[in-house]
Amino acid sequence: MHSKKHLKFKALIESVKKEFNKIEDTRGKNKSNSISDVMLSGIACMYFQCPSLLDFQRRMEVNGHKNNLRSMFSVSDIPTDTGMRAIIDEVDTEVAFRGIFKEYYQRLQRGKHLEEYQTLPGKYLLNIDGTQYFQSSKIKCKKCLERGKKGKEYNCHQVLQAAIVKTGLKQVIPVMPEEICTQDGDNKEDCEINAFKRFIDKFVKDHNKLEVIVNGDALYASIPVIKKIQEHNANYIFKVKPSSHKTLMKNVAKNAKARVIVKSLRGNELIIEWVNNVTLFSSYEEKVNYIEAWEVVPQKDGSTKSQYYGKWITDIETTKNNAKIILDAARARWKIENECFNTLKNHGYEIEHNYGHGEKNLSFNFYVFTLLAFFMHQIHQLTDNIFKKVRSLYGRATSFWGDLRAYMNKFYWEGLEELWVWLIETHGGPPIRLISSKNSA
What we know:
Low-confidence stretches: 429-441
Shape: globular
Mean pLDDT: 91
Helix content: 40-55%
Number of strands: 12
Order of helices and strands: HHHHHHEEEEEEHEHEHEEEEHHHHHH
Radius of gyration: 24 Å
Largest sheet: 12 strands, mixed
């Protein structure tokens, strides 16, 4: 019931601390907490989805001269909430977090856990999308974007997020995000496409041996994006809309479509049609491969109804052998919305909660703290049998994390795995068992 050592919780935290220790401390001599302690406290709060975690652990330290932030997260001195926010606001997000995301990916690769995510031999589906995680009509910092109609303007923070996904696999593997904000020296407001160009340059540098298929909505089905992807020898699958891709639709109509009929998940006829090597825009000679699909759904009265799936373009040549694979990959675009954004916003992570806005990097750093905690939880679900066992004992995720927070804040534990094992052993029994003196706070 044990995971590989380099993917255990303790090893993951040691990796985080190693990166946080690299952050240069430019403060003066009078400083009560190290930057590493502050950043580790931040990840601890987001890991347990508990902004009040620091208060509980400070009381535990006063009463028992020990606390779970030290035993689980290697925090030497617990910072105050105000002090923590002031320091995190100054920390450069790229410096603090990029190395951690890269390291976690390398550990998953070393453990062969990424292999099952291959969509085509040697190729991984990289879903991309933008989202907003902060909005206010009053609060503003220099990185805020200005949005809204005249008279209803508001300030917000947005991010370009990506994740490795696979049809049929629940866990998604997030990657280091790209902040959508006005860049230094640029008077123009940032946008999702510009953020993607920066993102893909950095992603390929971090994972230069990982072959990816970039999967996005119709916003990305444009020449600048396609050229940028080609620059990095990657592939793409993008949704298209007839209203914004009129030349493509005219060219598709001029060609005879190839067709294959397969079974849908519901056992109905699933019709896939495609045309290879058609021109995308009239002003460019860019050729793409077009694919569309619909399901024939039987009705109660004996008739049938077509459920349309959509239209996409790709640079992968479509054949009878891979048409269903490409279609499944295209439709898996929703996994970044459902398994990533929806989970972060509505299932305990509270990604849209304002933990503190700051003047520089605080808002985005808290987003990345939360995303990193989510990444760690995904790693647990993929690799740690103890975690998978204790998680399986609970139906709703909120119940599971509620219990973890309660016992984390009431009792002292030598390590997080000790708490997991205790929950497994006592599940279904009395709500509290007699624990040894070393575990009492």
